[in-house]
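Progress against Task 2.4 (sequence-to-structure conversion) is shown through the following example record, which the project officer requested during the mid-term review.
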Amino acid sequence: MAKTIYEKIENKALKDAEEIIKIGRERARQVEERIISKAKATIEKNLEKVREKGREYLKTKTTELEQQAWQQVLSAKKELINSVFQTALERLNALNDDVLGGLVRKLILSESLKGDETILVNSRDYERYLRLFSDGKTEGEDVVLSKLNSVLGPDFRLRLGKKPANISGGFLVFGETFDIDMSFETLLRGLQEEHETEIARILFSRGE
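Structure tokens generated for the chain above:
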């Protein structure tokens, strides 16, 4: 069974994660060790101050400090995971024409479109989409994506709108009944929400 575009994007994101593990793992460990070391030093200092006030106070204070240290570690890990997906986004935005063309076609075919929708891209990609997917014919203020339509099939009459989309890459689809967000950041955000736990395990597993 052929992989869906979401699976391919997912595989690419995981592959990108693996590629930066070498530089990310050491950075994460150093941050974690530095924070824990600082927390331990703070705990030891406070132990001397509170020892006479009893074991219960000491237990409470120690727990509080450990929780603070753990929260800082979690924050550092979250930052690194975000950097993984930022790297993936940058690579998607730097795709060459052939790969981008294939990706756009697959994304469109992955949805049940009526065929006469309008596509919006950011201002940076507008001329590129014109060059790749249109012969310049206009329909009102929009440009007919004739090259793309001919590949997608006779039911497609997609157009490229002039209004720039507020996205870093990918495109938005606007139709009469519903709109679809095919921006790269939205696609990757969905993957991050779905697979963040697994990616964290890959990044921060010890002994690998």
